[in-house]
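Quality-control log, excerpt.
Job 1 of 2 completed; input and output follow.
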Amino acid sequence: MKKITIILFILATVVSCTPNGEIKIAEGSFESTEVIVSAEGNGRILSFNAEEGANVIKGQILGKIDDRQLVLKRGQLLSMREKVETQRPDIGIQVAAMEEQLAVAKAENTRIANLVAAKAVSEKQLDDSKAQVTILELQLDALKSTLKQNVEGLAKESESLSFQIAQLDDQISKCVITSPIDGTLMTSYAQEGELASVGKSLFAVADLDCVYLRAYITAAELTTCKLNDTVKVRVNYGEGGKRYYEGKLSWISEKAEFTPKTVQTKDERATLVYAVKVSLVNDGYLKLGMYGAIVEGK
């Protein structure tokens, strides 16, 4: 284990040596990172099973907020989208009749052209036949253009309704209350039957498998340690009971501050220090708020 000599302040600032030769650098209390889960929907809380102290897993359902109005609105939008889809024209069927007319007119035009070549009919009949073909071609192009615009307009309307349905699906899913992480429920802020609104705190959950000891290091000693240094942490249990843990210096504040008010003397509180965190793996015996000591030696 790499040994580092740092002076840490939180409750005591005098380094002490125990009878067994163990040097206590400083004491601190164990903390964890809590996640406060807030409501993402509005409505009455229909069910809520967030018992403090219970272990939960990520994604576990803990309750539900009333989503009836959202479900009804979604059903209405689905009906509207279905109606729009039924109004979408079949371009192939719509233009088939006119294409058939155009094909007949072209065949007639060819027949008349042959008769004109044989001097069996007048040129005027051929001109009339050509004009009829041209008119039908223009009408067919106009019909195709109109039908295409109608289809595109209905497609956009259907797409807009689909987006609205997706928004409602998202809102409905947010009415289900779940845990965002694996951890332990620390505090419950709501009860079944209460009205929830977006942003209302529902419960707090923390991962107690990984905790950290928060302490403070003086500016003078800051150069003697660095991130990821390994330190020894001692925790006392009752009379004479002790447990030792290896911790890692996982965070050092970039800004100096005055020693917290929990330090007893005025002179000590006037000392500029840097906050640090020592991360540890919890074996189940470490509790939040419990005191631990950073030690060296035996």
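Job 2 of 2 completed; input and output follow.
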Amino acid sequence: MSDVAISGRTAPQPPDLRASYLRDLQRRRLYSGLLLALFALLFVSGFMLADDRNAGGFWDGLPKVFDFPSELVAEAVEKAANLPGHFVRYFPSLLETINIAAASTLVGAILASVISMLATRGLARWPALIPLFRRIMDIMRAVPEVVIALVLIFVLGGGPVAAMIAIAFHTTGALGKLFSEVNENADLRPVEGLASVGSTWTQRMWFAVLPQVAPNYLSYGLMRFEINIRASAILGFVGSGGIGYDLRNAMSWGKGRYDEVAAIFILLLTTIVIVDQISSHYRNRLVRGV
């Protein structure tokens, strides 16, 4: 007879793991269902409020949602012979848009690399100021480019400079957040080795940290370049130059100029697809060695 039986006491029974798992699963499903119902309620109420503020015009205009694309395609097909000339005419504006995106990405990436290192534990030059630099990045990331561009246009006037500054400002905050996460995975032993021989903070970052994080930096920078091309085109609608400005002017004329609108759309779409493919190829080579 076992010791348990001799002592007259029964051994404690192991918990029913399956029953406990099912209870946790049901609880999670209940919470998920409640959150989904709350989200659906907020979505429907917000939509109804927006429709009322719009004088109930959403449902009346819903059948006409494809009118503009159909008119655009029809006129572009009718004037297809003019498209090559429009491509040549608007190509300089496309280059201006790409230049805005490239300059803002470069400036934003340089500033983001510095701020991210100042905001990373173990790498920061002034550890007490890490929360300050992180809040600066949060603010730069939270303000939309179009808001910054509108303020700069009021101060500087219209043109590509305002768009470049606005996009670079937002890019600094967005890339700074990504760069700081990359920095946290860097090996600190080279940093400590350089510190032991009396190197400066700049030398430690340049020779010990940057070689480790450079592939990820370049990968994120290329990804941000794709985003900034679209952003620079959008900012053209508020007078910041580039092909977006020409697109706004062409659309404002309405029928009769839709072939120009179609040409600009084709240029933008082609450019974004090409840049996306090239960027994806080089990002894979940088990060994975493929």
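Post-run check on job 2. Residues 17-53 form the longest helix (37 residues).
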